[in-house]
Severin (Madurella mycetomatis), 358 residues
Amino acid sequence: MAPNRGIVHFKEYNVEDSNVELIGNFELSKTDPDNSKLLPDIYFYLGAHTSQDEAGTAAYKTVELDAFLHGAATQHREVQSNPSAEFLALFPRVTVRRGGVASGFRHVELADGGSAPSTPTLLRVFRHPASSASSTADAMVVYEVEPTWRGLDEGDVFILEEGAKIWVWQGRACSPIEKAKTAQVVHDMRLDKRAEVEVLSQTEPRSRVVVKMLGGGDEDGFGELRAERPVVGVSSKAAAEQENRRRRLFRLSDETGQLQFGLVRDAGDAISRSDLDGDDVYLLDSCGKAIWVWEGQNASSAEKTMWLRAAQGYVRRLQDEDPNRQAYLTPIAKVREGSESPAFLRAIEVMCAAGHGG
């Protein structure tokens, strides 16, 4: 049986039910029906244009949900530009639309009863960079991008909604799986409206019509077409730099009467579970692969409330030290004493690669 899942959406200060299309912030929880123990995960998803109010409300509600689950949940902060492989594995397909829920899908009624976007809509379909992971071998992302010919990339497939017609533009280097997944997306789109569909390969002369519909001139689009993907992943260079990040352990504590965040173990120091005190909250930088927050069972309310802010502040500091590091893409997850995930237990005990410290 598949795990049970639920999704809520944070719009301004309100919590609303949601479908699985990603437009903003989401939390999910799951249980293992074959195990009597609740094994929840809460995924805290931040859209690229999430307001501070929405992010704050989501963080507050995450604390409430965790309390409802008796603190047993593993919490994960996800960012739109680099969702984790575990998060993508929850969905057969992730669709990210521009403009959020308030903008809707910008459809207008046609005389024949169908519908069409009031402006051209361009969707980019591609395998997510995390697809190399076995759990997300076919993780596909459908991402709405700026409707311009400069946004085309010959390595992916694009869907253009223009009036009552859907155009599929296949880049010359796109993969067979991307073509197949795009066909599924178009099929689902046709369930909502009657629309003619035309599929064009970049190698066909007629594919020029899509370039022109996206504002290109007679001389545009003949050379190599490349556009940066909106879901960037961590570049190989940045990944290598993050691997070189020191393994460090920090403590968040108010035992002195003031909340303080300080270094407990630095690079070269051995780190183990025995370093964790149940009266406090700890942050483990696992060699740049992930940032783990461990919450002691007897941690104070202030310590429990401030864990996310402390983790985000640490990431900002790393990013300020080296703007090219891409530290902002580092996954952040939180576990509670007594309900640690296997991934955390591996992170706290396993040493970094030789020469990387810790």
Q: What stands out?
A: The chain has eight helices and 18 strands. The helical segments are 52-68, 85-88, 176-192, 208-213, 236-243, 301-305, 307-321, 342-349.
